[in-house]
Specification:
Layout lengths: L1 H20 L12 H12 L5 H8 L3 H13 L3 E4 L4 E4 L2 H11 L4 H15 L2 E8 L2 E8 L14 E2 L5 H9 L2 H9 L14 H14 L2 E4 L6 E10 L2 E10 H5 L2 H19 L1
Antiparallel strand pairs: 1-2, 3-4, 3-8, 4-5, 6-7, 7-8
């Protein structure tokens, strides 16, 4: 009995650890997103889960989880081990995701250009777009260096502290920019974040004139990012190169030239 309690406590501690270390989406606990959050939980855990563990990971009642798991089993997205009573995704979701990714009209166009830019700079290259009052990463091609800036597609970044966010503010029309800036929280993400509106406006004006937006430890400590805009079919996208501050500072001019050339080439090919 004591051994059983010890095992259960270990499982709960492990679940709490995974929830802290791995970002599992909350979506304000909306019922319509439970399936997405379930798959993120499996990705974080990296192992089959019991119903009680799923319930704990999702902060959702067992009865609700039971219905969700059953529905996904019936759809061919989950399978269960009768002996252990644990559940895990089939590869059907992977097949669906690969099909969706292969037909993305934006990301697939940028892919080869981002890979080439990554090879030129040896740093992480990111594609982003404005998403309401934030920036969402659409694609990430990571640096081959062991010490690098790491990110994931779907990551959400603030407008005032990230290079991509500043780009979206700076390249927006005066009316749209005024509206976005008026609602900015201007919170300090790091000790280097610009938290004064006048300072931010000045930074945006200078950056817009150069066509380059830069952050140095403003969104992630010890990370420098350089972003430039790409306009395609009336939409503004941002391409950024990011890496450790010390390494990026030593080749800033080279990175900026490579980035601007890549963005010009992308626009030219599309046009």
């Amino acid at each position: 009995m004591a051994e059983s309690r010890k095992h259960k406590n270990f499982q709960l501690d492990n679940i709490r650890y995974m929830k802290e270390v791995f970002h599992i989406m909350n979506f304000e606990n909306a019922s319509s997103t439970r399936a997405v959050r379930l798959f993120e939980a499996f990705a974080s855990a990296g192992a089959p889960q019991s119903l009680s563990e799923i319930s704990e990971l999702l902060h959702t009642p067992l009865s609700t989880c039971h219905g969700l798991v059953k529905a996904l089993q019936n759809g061919g997205y989950l399978y269960s081990n009768a002996a252990t009573r644990r559940h895990y995704p089939t590869r059907r979701l992977l097949q669906v995701a690969e099909t969706i990714a292969a037909n993305d009209p934006v990301v697939t166009y940028f892919d080869q250009h981002m890979a080439a830019l990554r090879d030129l700079t040896a740093e992480t290259v990111i594609l982003g777009a404005l998403q309401k009052d934030t920036v969402v990463y659409l694609s990430v091609v990571e640096s081959p260096n062991s010490i690098r800036y790491s990110a994931r597609p779907g990551d959400i970044k603030p407008l005032h502290s990230s290079a991509m966010g500043k780009l979206m503010l700076g390249e927006a029309s005066a009316r749209v920019r005024a509206g976005l800036i008026a609602d900015l929280p201007m919170e300090a993400v790091t000790e280097n974040t610009l938290t004064d509106l006048d300072t931010l406006r000045s930074d945006l004006d200078q950056s817009r004139d150069r066509g380059i937006y830069v952050t140095q430890g403003e969104n992630v400590s010890e990370v420098m990012a350089i972003a430039a805009p790409v306009r395609i079919a009336g939409e503004t996208y941002g391409v950024a190169v990011a890496g450790p501050v010390g390494r990026m500072q030593g080749k800033q001019e080279e990175v900026e030239q490579s980035l601007l050339a890549a963005c010009t080439g992308i626009e030219g090919e599309f046009g």
